[in-house]
Structure formats: C-alpha cells, structure tokens
Specification:
341 residues, alpha/beta, Rossmann fold, 4-stranded parallel beta sheet, 15 helices, globular, disordered C terminus
Length: 341
C-alpha cells in the first residue's frame, strides 16, 4: 500500500467533495470504508476528521488515548479517566460505577462527525481541563498540536478475532443481519489491511515510531506506548507509568492507602460489567451499540480458539514482513483475564 499522503489536510468543504472519489471497500461489515491517506476509515467518520483538524483547539494538558479498534480501548479509557480524575471522583460514587468508559471519554473524530454542520466550534470546548479524549485515527491523521498521547497496542491476531466477534454483537444490537462473509473471508480482508483503521500493523507502527522519537525530538507529540499483554500481566505497574506520564503521579500517601490497587479494581472487567450502563440492553453508544457489548473475556491469546495454526502463521508472516527493520514486534504472552477490550 502507498505511503501516507496529505489527503486529510483539506477543508471540510473539500472533504465532502473528496470522499466519493476515495477507494471504497464495502465487504467490511457495519460501515463502508474509504481509504484516506493510506488507511481504511469508516466513511461516516471522514467529515469528522476534517472538522477535527479545522475546529479542535488543543490544550496543553489534554490527553488523547489512541488505539487500533479492539486493542484495549475500553480498558485504557477507564484507567486513564480514573487515574486523571481520582481527586475529583471518590471511589464510592465514581462515574465508572454508573456509566460506561465510552460515556466518560469520547472519540474525537466520531464526536465531530456526529455533530455535523450543526456545530461550528470545538465540540469539546465546554469540557473542563484536563480533558481526556480518545481516537482510532492513525498517528499522522491526528490534529496538529495534540500534546500527550497514550497508545495501546495488541497482538494483531487477538485484535482481529475480538473485532470479528464484536461486529456480530454490534450488528445484533442494531438488529442487523450478521456479516454475509465467513471468518475466513474476514481474515483475508484483515491480512490485506482492508479493515477499519487498517492495516493494523501500520497503525501501530506510526505510534511506535512517534514514541521512539520522543523525548529526543521536542517538536513531536509525547507518546506513551503501552502493550495490552503487558498491562494484563502488571496492571498496577502500568497504571503507575500512566500516572507519571499524565503528570499526576501517585503520592506516597496514595500508595500507602492502596489507591493504585483501587484504580485497578475499579477498572477491571468484573467491576465495569456491573456498572448500570453496562448491564442489560437499554443503554447504547451514539452508534446504537450496547455498552455491555464492549466486554468479553479481555484476555491475551484468545485467537487460538478461532484461528487455525495456518491462519496464525500467515498473519504473523504478513506482520513480520511489514515491520521488518522497525524494531517493533508482537510477542505471544499468556495473561490472566482481568480487562476489557
């Protein structure tokens, strides 16, 4: 696939004219995809990309949580929100005990896309600082002057399987017929990079390279690069890393009081599943997907229940070839089940 271009650096009006001319992929279920600047993005999101570049006004203390879909997004949202706002929200009545992480932390490009032309200003302008936002956009499609970015990556085999299963749940939530193609056909598309925000490995690589440029290059965004599998193995240690990066480290008093473990417990898949918004089917996201559909097993290596050894070897080879020489690898790690994806 060609290297990223500057197609995204167009006005909102120009984006509306550009969209019908972009390569189209309709075999991916849920959304038709268009290839913008080398990546396949949901068609409905593209106006939001242009709007975010035009209207979003970053603040120095903003934090943007980035990920390829189904790579630990929900868990990272919960952990970052709970860590960043632990002084504002006591554990007993915490928003995460009532609502979904996706209600607490909104997606940048989706929010602008859904606002449409009805909102001429920054849709996040009314949020108090520090703001915690999220995105599935590749690194080079982020708006300018975004400061701190936290990226979580996941083994592409697990990301694929989790995405496939989530698609079935999401379509059932919206009372839409299941995907017309098989797991094997979806796998072929994934290996070709023809999936939402794909190719997955290039999505990860963009943030990986940015994380390695910082802090040597002071002109680049600060990027903390996390691995989902390592977070599962040591959630407390990674929460401490997250807090340090966010400029809000845990004090000795908080450590002694067990605040780190309290954040980990609050954000565990078992706790989040019990939140009012995540129980039953009444509460949905802006796109009509039940909040509860975002929680499954949250483990590493679950792809073994769905992919044949031959399929796994093929995807590993595709990724290895694409990442050759980058220093980035995906290692297989056996982890306990205590998270959300």
């Amino acid at each position: 696939m060609a290297a990223p271009t500057d197609e995204h650096l167009v006005s909102e009006g120009e984006m509306a004219k550009l969209i019908p001319t972009l390569p189209l992929e309709t075999r991916y279920p849920r959304f038709p995809l268009r290839r913008l600047s080398g990546f396949w993005l949901p068609e409905f999101v593209l106006p939001g990309v242009a709007a975010a570049h035009a209207r979003f006004d970053p603040r120095p203390d903003d934090v943007v949580l980035a990920s390829f879909p189904k790579s630990g997004t929900t868990w990272l949202k919960a952990l970052a929100f709970a860590t960043m706002h632990r002084d504002r929200h006591p554990a007993a009545g915490h928003p995460l005990r009532r609502g979904s992480p996706h209600e607490c932390v909104k997606f940048l490009e989706v929010s602008f896309a859904l606002a449409g032309n009805k909102e001429d200003d920054d849709v996040f302008a009314s949020l108090p600082s520090p703001r915690v936002l999220a995105t599935h956009l590749p690194y080079h499609l982020l708006p300018d002057r975004v400061g701190r970015v936290v990226y979580v990556c996941r083994d592409p085999k697990d990301a694929f399987v989790s995405g496939w299963l989530f698609t079935h749940k999401a379509m059932a939530d919206k009372q839409v017929a299941p995907p017309p193609h098989t797991l094997e056909e979806a796998f072929e598309l994934f290996c070709e990079g023809r999936c939402m925000c794909g190719p997955q490995w290039r999505h990860v690589l963009g943030y990986w390279e940015a994380s390695r440029r910082w802090p040597e290059d002071t002109n680049t965004n600060k990027v903390l690069f996390l691995r989902y599998e390592e977070m599962l193995l040591d959630p407390a240690g990674n929460v401490r890393r997250l807090a340090e990066f966010l400029g809000h480290p845990f004090s000795r008093e908080e450590e002694a009081a067990g605040t780190v473990d309290a954040v980990v417990d609050l954000c565990s898949i078992h706790s989040l599943k019990k939140a009012t918004a995540n129980v039953g089917g009444a509460t949905t996201t802006e796109l009509g997907v039940r909040h509860g559909s975002f929680f499954r097993k949250g483990k590493a290596g679950g792809w073994r229940d769905h992919l044949t050894p031959e399929m796994a070897a093929r995807l590993d080879a595709v990724v290895a070839q694409a990442l050759h020489g980058s220093g980035l690898t995906f290692g297989a790690v056996a982890c306990k089940d205590d998270s959300a994806s």
